[in-house]
Amino acid sequence: MLLRVHANARSATRVNGEQLSRFGLDERGLQDVLFRSLDRLLPDEELLLIAQSRHWQEEPDLLALDERGRLYIFEIKVWESRSENLLQALRYGQILGPYDYAALEQLFRRFDDTGRSLAEAHRATFGLDLSPSEFNRKQVFIVLTNGLDFRTRQAIQYWRRTGLDVRPWVYRVYADADPSFLLEIARFAVEDNPYEDARAGFYILNTNHGNDPADHADMLKSKKAAAYFSPWKHKMEQLSRGDTIFLYQSAVGIVAMGRASGKLQTAA
Fold this sequence. Notes:
By secondary structure, this protein is of the alpha/beta class. It has helices at about 25-40, 85-95, 100-110, 120-125, 150-160, 215-220, 230-235; strands spanning about 5, 10-15, 50, 60-65, 70-75, 140-145, 165-175, 180-185, 200-205, 245-250, 255-260. The strands form three sheets. It has a six-stranded mixed β-sheet.
C-alpha cells in the first residue's frame, strides 16, 4: 500500500494502483525488467536465479533455487482475473517435476556466461554443498499478479489450504513522471488478503452468513446488498450509483457482485 501524506494537514490518502497495461508493458516486458533487476529484490542469501523463459517456448517466466535446492517457479501475470493464471504455473510444475540436476544445469548454462556449474554457483551463493539428488526435490510456485487481481489471489488461498506451496507475489503499479512508473512488490507472502486493493468505488460486503444464514440467503435471492446492525448499516449510506459491490461469504469468498442503483431503502 502506498500512501500520499499531506504534511501540513497531518493526513494521508491512499494512492490507487493501476494496471500495468496502462504503461504499455506486457508480461514479457515485466519479465525482462525483473530478470535484469531481481538481485535488488532477491538478495543472494535467499534465491539463486537460474533461468528465464524464451520466446515461443512453454517455459516458466523465471526459475530459481533456494539454499535447500527447492525449485521456485515464477508465473508473471499482467492480464488479470483469468482462470489460467494459476493453472499455468501448476502445469510448469508438472513439466519440471522430472528434471534432475543435469537438466537444471543445462537450463542454468543458457543464461549464465561465467562457465560455472550449477553446483558451483549454488555453493558460491549459499555456502552449502548439495548432492545432485537434493536439487528439485520440492517445488514452490510464485504467482506474480497485480494487487487488483483479487480472483487470482483468491484461487491461491484455496490451493494453499489444500497443502500446495503456492504464494502470491503481489505487485502494484503507480503513476509517476512519464515515461517512468513506480513498481511495488510484496515478496513471498504466505498469508494474503485478496481484497485489500479494492479501490474507491469497489466495496466488499459480508453477507452475515456466520450470524444468520437467512440474511445471506435473502441477499442472494433478492439480489440486494444489505446490512443489519450498527455501524455497518450506516456505511450503506456511502454507496453511490454505479459503485461495484462484492458480496462476500466468510470462509467461502465472493459469491455475487453487482452495481449500486443509488436508491437506499430502510426497513424497520
